[in-house]
Design goal:
About 35% of the residues lie in helices and about 15% in strands. The longest helix is centred in the middle third of the chain and has 24 residues. The chain binds NADP nicotinamide-adenine-dinucleotide phosphate. NADP nicotinamide-adenine-dinucleotide phosphate binds next to helix 4. Pfam families: Pyr_redox_3.
Length: about 500
Amino acid sequence: MAAQYDAVIVGAGFGGMGAAIQLHRLGHRRLLILEREDDLGGTWHVNRYPGLAVDIPSATYSYSFEPNPHWSRLFAPGAELKQYAEHVAEKYGLRPHMRFGTVVTGAHWVEEESHWRVAIAGGDSVTATYLCTATGFLSQPKVPDIEGIEDFGGKVIHTTAWDDDYDLTGKRAAIIGTGATAVQLIPEVAKVAADLTVYQRTPIWVSPKPDYRIPPRLRRLFARIPLAQKVVRAVGSGLLELLMISGVVHYRRLRIANRIAERYCRAHLFRQVRDPELRRKLTPDYSFGCKRPTFSNTYFRAFTKPHVHLETSRIERVEEQAIVTADGRRTEIDVLLLATGFNLWDVNFPAIEIIGRDGKNLGKWWRENRFQAYEGVTVPGFPNLVSLNSPYSYSGLSYFTTIECQMQHIDRLFRAMRARNAKVFEVSQQANDRFLELMRDKVGDSVFALGQCATANSYYFNQHGEATLLRPTSTRNAQREAVRFPLSDYTYA
Ligand code: NAP
């Protein structure tokens, strides 16, 4: 029986849209994009907290084939990313393929039919020749397991479920978390709250943010002469790559670059915070790069305001109107803001149950063996599956680098299939093992293996303590491999 769709893509964020654009280019028209949220854009649809902005320069944090000359700042506010996602969906005709408010519960490979059956909450299911999961890395919000939190009588808001109608003005607020999200949120809440206590478990490396407004005449120039914006993109990407390569990937040889990055962040903190005790609390004790660093000009300074307090004692419990720390202090609050991030390794690899050949369960297999995926895209035993949010897939600092490498991989793989008149691909165990070994070898040179990462509490590490999220190579390497991986690494039928 023929499958209903050429491909089902799970997720309508930038990853899913990139895959859809690529499959469309390859001539696949029967595409279905399933999305659990009520609109497209992924992260940039879900997140609406005050201060939300991209922390990678926008000329870089966008598809290279779809530059946007209209960014208002070097680091665009979140709403512009959402608009950009809408523009891309419109221009590439993706909306008609999308079905919103649709929760995919699982998918299994039907051997006799050589297709995937994708199960949807509510009992419905669809079939597709190819399955592409694009469910994001940071898409399962983490609510902290703190005693009494469910009995709190005030307002609780997770940053991924912002309540636009709730007014923080004059409120006594608490924020749990000091990751990249909190770094953006804290200065904004500090502007309006009567009192703000920030509960920090692990400090974060923060460097200055060269966050400039892009004047209209420059935007007009970008629109008229796209090459001008390409140059800006190349410079931004180059600097990020330098930071990533020297500070993180090649730590063994370029440890000095990592130290320079740390010094730069420390100097930034020194300029903004005069109190040595506060500075000490805000200074990480782990190596730069073990955990996602971020940029901000206003984060450290927020803590110098008299109504903003940094609390580093462990939270003991939450009561009906207060937070109590391990040292017995009790802080009364009206609103509890959870900037507690995401659960990656328990529920997100993969985000849905995927059953491949011979009943092989992807999540179980990853957990019982190692987290692994050939070139961060395909897995042996899972024919016709393109898994975008796989171990070792994240390349460079801009997610768009990852997406575009994966689009190239899809392009090469699907053309190879067409040349062989094949309908089914599967990566060989041998190729997968070779890639895994290479990645493990390269991680051995990185800050993850050689730096002081034990106290970082970083989501780059899985539950076995292995850094299996980032691809520990240069972006150039990822790009090169995407267009020249041996076609014999796959079987075709
Ligand atoms: P995160 O980096 O995982 O930070 C979560 C914070 O909550 C951490 O400080 C964590 O402390 C704390 N936390 C979690 N559970 C806790 C508990 N039970 N008790 C006390 N503290 C707890 O999450 P995020 O800040 O949402 O950022 C996630 C990622 O999103 C970033 O790394 C970045 O990649 C991305 N992001 C990007 C942008 C952008 O502009 N592009 C903006 C925001 C976020 P520990 O560190 O001790 O676990």
